[in-house]
Amino acid sequence: MEDYWIRRFEDRDYEEAREVLISGLNEHSSTLFRCALQQPGIQLALLSVFCFFFLNSASFLLSSVVLALAVLAVNRTAYQFISICWTEVALKHDLLDIKKSYMETSDSCFWVAECNGKVVGTIAALPFKELVGALELKRLSVRRGYRGRGIGKALCRAVIDFAQANGFQSIVLCTSVIQLEGKKLYERLGFKKMKEYFWPSRLGKALGLVLLHYKYDVSPLHKDN
Known about the structure:
Blueprint: E1 5-8, H1 14-26, H2 28-37, H3 40-57, H4 60-92, H5 98-102, E2 109-115, E3 118-127, E4 134-142, H6 151-165, E5 170-176, H7 180-189, E6 192-198, H8 202-207, E7 210-217
Parallel strand pairs: 4-5
Antiparallel strand pairs: 1-2, 2-3, 3-4, 5-7, 6-7
Helix pairs in contact: 1-4, 2-4, 3-4
């Protein structure tokens, strides 16, 4: 198995780091689609579509085709939601200038995981404005072909070590129910779920997208006398 190492972001990493993050975000559209199909409101809407066309056409085949098209529309909606609400927002904000967003102050940082000269993972951290003494963990992503090697865990440990070294009392993060691998990783590392709520929009609620807030209490770094 190829070795990897975690290091601080450099200017030459810009395109690869963004590509890792974008591909990771876009992967979640299929998970959101499956989540949406489990929502009672969407199930009722799809059933209503089928019944309406069946009652008016008496054709099971036509009604089934229309139902399939309605399901495809839900899938497309999930993809557009991920693309617009997550990916485009990220690209227009902190990922537009990673160096400026994370590397110009001592209390924030952006890391990459490198393997054979290729960026295969990312993570970032910066002070959380809503809680004194808290560091916010952001932008964790690992290329699909490099998962299962402990890269995500190593990236999170880099943030925890950074928080300890810089005197932060806690680490907070926001994820969602569709980011299953990340959710499991955070909980294994000791992050505790503080609250959950639907994405603050009618569409987010209709799709069943629940946001989760986690917190990790940082142990003080003991220095030898």
